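Quick one before lunch.
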Amino acid sequence: MSESLDLHLASVETSLDNPVLPFLRQDRIPHIWCPGCGIGTSVNCFCRALSDSGLDLDKVAIVSGIGCTGRTAGYLNLDSFHTTHGRAIPFATGLKLSNPELNVVVYSGDGDLFAIGGNHFFHAARRNMDILVICVNNFTYGMTGGQVAPTTPVGPTQTTMPYGNFENPFNLPFIADACGATYVSRWTIYHVRQLAKAMKEALGKKGFRFIEVMSPCPTLYSRRNRLGDGVDQVKYYKEKSVIKNGVDTKEVGLGYQGEIVVGKFVDRERPTWLESMNAHYSHHFGDAFQPYGVKNGQD
Amino acid sequence: MSAEDDARKGKGTVFVRVEVCKGCSFCIDFCPSHALEFSREFNPKGYHFPVLGRAEDCTGCDLCGLYCPDFAIFGARWKDLDEKRQAASTPTQP
Ligand SMILES: Cc1ncc(C[n+]2csc(CCOP(=O)(O)OP(=O)(O)O)c2C)c(N)n1
Ligand code: SF4
Ligand code: SF4
Ligand code: SF4
Ligand SMILES: [Mg+2]
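Model of the thiamine diphosphate complex:
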């Protein structure tokens, strides 16, 4: 025991070496997330992705809506926007269009992005707005006390579904695919290496990119349904996940504690909204049109 | 020899910021070498935190570091740590 304590003391001096600390606003840590909440693990993976991407961090901005996941923007040491509920994507769109050289990332919850914010998601994907959307899906409204969400599977109890949920949930990768996203993948927080790699890959791509991250909410989802703590949910992810890259997104809907299909489902090229606009008006007006957000005649 | 040198049993080690750990056990359950276990002591917030119970099994792979939702732990290879420390203490050539 004393030996391990010595190591802890040794760790005080070197603790600043933790590779993720420079990516965080350390004055805000410890964060508010509950013990065993998976949001922090996803943020940890995102920090590794930022680090591995080699991107100039002054040109990366992060936008969140409201919710436990929505707190992410406030913890990352990037230019960040903590917006109103459901409106992270419109803010991100404005940010991207006013300063096209920014790499804009939306980081928010399933309720924020697909309940109140659903319409924004569909249209940004349809237009191929050049942003990366990371959705932490914990199947519930964590911050407000565990109400049923558009992602809650049929079966589990929620505060607004005391006898279990009977509503059909969204299949998020299928929605993103159908709306035209250029990159769609799903991982769980068990798959830390794959998730960090997917985030890095998506940061380097253009167009509307979507990553779904399955993550436990022990406080309001797992415990309420007697599924144990956060770690028990992550063990379930480990047991029941199958990697199926390139599979039809129609096939990846999630049932209650059932099989989880993970992997990269979509990776395609499509002109972004800005590219389409520039091409369209250049075609109509020729040299009289000054393409927007383009440097030295090329993007 | 420092306490740290004495403790060099495996290929790597972990560094824990005991005070920010929330005792979720992700690092303990998903360490591929099963090198970690919970402390008997509590941290100031009342959580048990991870200790390197089987130091000889730690490879320094840093998977615990990736799993930690609270940024409280990370692993490193002694080899990399030595290189880093040496680089930090060697004055750069003009
Ligand atoms: C306009 C508006 N309506 C409702 C709310 C209440 N509210 C706050 S967070 C939230 C849901 C968050 O769910 P999710 O996005 O899944 O985040 P989580 O907490 O699960 O990470 C709701 C309904 C609000 N803040 N503003
Ligand atoms: S309520 Fe749920 S989602 Fe929110 S911090 Fe706690 S565990 Fe995480
Ligand atoms: S560095 Fe790797 S082997 Fe060592 S405790 Fe962490 S996860 Fe286990
Ligand atoms: S993963 Fe982090 S918070 Fe959880 S027990 Fe390990 S060090 Fe503590
Ligand atoms: Mg949620």
